[in-house]
Input
Amino acid sequence: MENYLKEAKAAASTLATLSGEVKNRVLNKIADALVENSALIIEHNKFDMEEGERNNLSSALMDRLYLDESRIEAMAQAVREIAALKEPVGRILEGWVTDNGLRIEKVSIPIGVIGIIYESRPNVTSDAAALCFKSGNVAILKGGKEAQQSNEAIAKVIQKALEAEGLPKALISLLPDGSREGVAKLIKMDKYVDLIIPRGGEALIRFVNDNATVPVVKHDKGLCHTYIHKDADFDEAIKIAINAKCQRPGVCNAMETLIVDEAIAKEMLPKLKAAFDAESTKLLGDDATQKIIDVDAATEEDFDTEYLANTLSIKVVKDVDEAIAHIRRYGSGHSEAILTNNHRAAEKFLNEVDAACVYVNASTRFTDGGAFGFGAEVGISTNKLHARGPMGINDLTTYKYKVYGEGQIR
Amino acid sequence: MENYLKEAKAAASTLATLSGEVKNRVLNKIADALVENSALIIEHNKFDMEEGERNNLSSALMDRLYLDESRIEAMAQAVREIAALKEPVGRILEGWVTDNGLRIEKVSIPIGVIGIIYESRPNVTSDAAALCFKSGNVAILKGGKEAQQSNEAIAKVIQKALEAEGLPKALISLLPDGSREGVAKLIKMDKYVDLIIPRGGEALIRFVNDNATVPVVKHDKGLCHTYIHKDADFDEAIKIAINAKCQRPGVCNAMETLIVDEAIAKEMLPKLKAAFDAESTKLLGDDATQKIIDVDAATEEDFDTEYLANTLSIKVVKDVDEAIAHIRRYGSGHSEAILTNNHRAAEKFLNEVDAACVYVNASTRFTDGGAFGFGAEVGISTNKLHARGPMGINDLTTYKYKVYGEGQIR
Output
């Protein structure tokens, strides 16, 4: 492991000085190579699919695993789109001259060596590789074991393309020991690795966070709320609530709890129930909710659960303060929305709720690098530090200060 | 410990919404209270001084510990200066409108609860408290045990001032259990604590980094190099080298190793030796250096040592590439300088050396929040993430995205 990481670290300085032109050419060659080698990749993917069948993977997981020519074309297209992004390295973030004439530039630079730990979908392998490469970072990738054969084939194709361009294959590689022990070692190698990004289940993320000495940017759970304030536009509020819950219930920016003002509960809850019934959403409610509509009880535990399913807890509150207090207690700091036409209530909510993204009159489903206009998404950070919320490619850079003097001493 | 931290976290939301006007008024009251209570603080400081004498603390440590009226006035003045800084919370860092009309603002907000672990000097207690308060963060302070009585007196004065303004004293407090075990607990409390800043010796920082589950911004060692390129202005280079080493040898931005181009070594090394001899600097050199001037051998270990003393290793190199390679191997990523009039050499060095601050023709001693113009310094980060190099008060904030919609759904 240590020799492997030494090579990775040594490769980082080569990569940091490549021009955008070279990086983009290499990325386009990688995209071509993926398409040209799709038969090989599909062949290896078949092994994973067969293994998945033997292990009775769910049909959802099997679908995420599956690759065919059009999916590989989409992977290649994603790499080309990453190549087309604005160069993230060398941006002058700030610049000024000190009183004694030092000219200081704060400039974006690559982070160094980044370890990305993720699950099943093999397209993440090429996405993560391209995002790291474009931002000048060496990528150490550790995918799910269900996709091991597919990931190895994809990585081999990418490494061959790197070598054909005269670049070391250490720039993009799969972690050689992908076991739990291998990961446990990797996350303690702060001498060689500059950042770990774990994407996956709560257990994986907790394990990485608790054991890493390398800095971690987590992609943790989203327990998101939508609060319908008494001054909301009722029809719009129902549309947003349905969208936030039902458009894709299994993702982190979907709503898990709906909060409704007591003053409008009698009018709104039956309308909401009708709309959610049409989407076959399972509804649970607190006492006040149960007095108005016929739903099962939402327990303390329900309000604390990220369902990742078409299930919704409902809570009735007195006012915006109680809504904010509920979110403070149960929210995961991911995405929270207020629906209202009341200016002061909206501003209070936006200012006082501590979350990566706070919305007024929109669906929490927009918390996403693509929807934010970042072009390609690294993920959604639930960290408070370094990067928070949707992460674009610029979040894979750090900075240095360049200081230009003319002989200044202290 | 858990109840104490729960209170701290609860207090964070109060503090996050205070206006700059209120925060500044409170900070000025704290400054007044420090001056008004200087007799009390000095009385407690005497206990620490007596204890220090019993424990045979060095005169340097005793001097750092000592407080009198003028030093307390300086502490109060530092708090007033922090109050006068530009409000760090609520800055709009970026803003844009997405294609579907969502208006997104990226806004600076407090981080939350910050634990700061530091050593001996009691003025750090009021400095750190004021920096955290101004940036809207709850401060949990853990000073050195040598200064325990002084720190307790200072914290008590600050807390009384907070309570007189109707604010909870949990906003600024000393960690109740300041033992190693207490620190070990604190740094695992990621449920309540958002950031740990350790400032101190290598052992403390390693302990915190290896055991924390809370994110850490380190203030680690500085093994800084100055490289005299063959096209340097020789007189200026000598002045800068002397300044970088001798002006204050015990600090992290002082030079530890001087690198000299082989083409100018015969001319420069004797001049440098004369200048350093006048400053009583102990010089060590590699083989090539020893052939030109009479100095002891610099070992592999010397090149890897942060002396924090008036000692300097000298290395002769062929060219800028070898200088960069040496810095890559031994540098700590803190501050590195090239002295040259050669444009390409300067740019190559600035671009390829990976350090928080890279200089051309200036002393590394300028790596400092004050010298950078940040007004007050939180410290100097040797992290690559969140904050790198001199940290100003803005580095004690994170951000949220405020998203203004008009009914948008996906």
